[in-house]
Design a protein that fits this description.
3 helices, alpha+beta, HIT family, subunit A, binds zinc ion, globular, single chain, 5-stranded antiparallel β-sheet
Length: about 140
């Protein structure tokens, strides 16, 4: 699997945004850019990245996060019009353990078709109600901080 661990400003997406390497760009605005993923899980598979180098979701400003989702929404609408997929999957990975392979925030917009072979393991733990409530309490405390 390809993994880009370049420092900020020199990563493959920063170089792409600077026009130093070619890309099939489909949309850009002040804060975001959308271009085709080289791997093309299905036709129209697009990456939406923020223009400023920010490694993960946690490094975005709230405004950048909103801008990225606004562009992903727009690209998803376009992918639906252009390729008429049966479904669409958005995937956003953070950190190596989260499946991130380029350390510059991006969202995958993936047109989907039945039996296209794209998958995500989803190992449910189904904890009991009291464990769910303990997790919720931890998150509420963090949100209130
Ligand atoms: Zn970058």
């Amino acid at each position: 699997m390809f993994v880009d661990t370049s420092p900020a400003g020199q990563c493959i997406f920063c170089r792409l945004i600077a026009g130093e390497i070619p890309a099939s760009v489909v949309f850009e605005d002040a804060q975001t850019i959308a271009f085709l993923d080289l791997g093309q899980l299905n036709p129209g598979h697009t990456l939406v990245a923020v223009k400023r180098h920010a490694a993960t979701l946690l490094d975005l400003t709230p405004d950048e996060a909103a801008a990225a989702m606004r562009t992903a929404h727009r690209v998803a609408q376009a992918a639906q019009t252009a390729f008429a997929p049966a479904g669409l999957t958005l995937l956003q990975c953070n950190g190596e353990a989260g499946g991130q392979t380029v350390g510059h925030f991006h969202i995958h917009v993936v047109p989907r078709h039945a039996d296209d072979g794209v998958g995500l393991l989803w190992p449910r733990k189904d904890p009991p109600r009291e464990v769910l409530e303990a997790y919720a309490a931890q998150l509420r405390q963090a949100l209130a901080a």
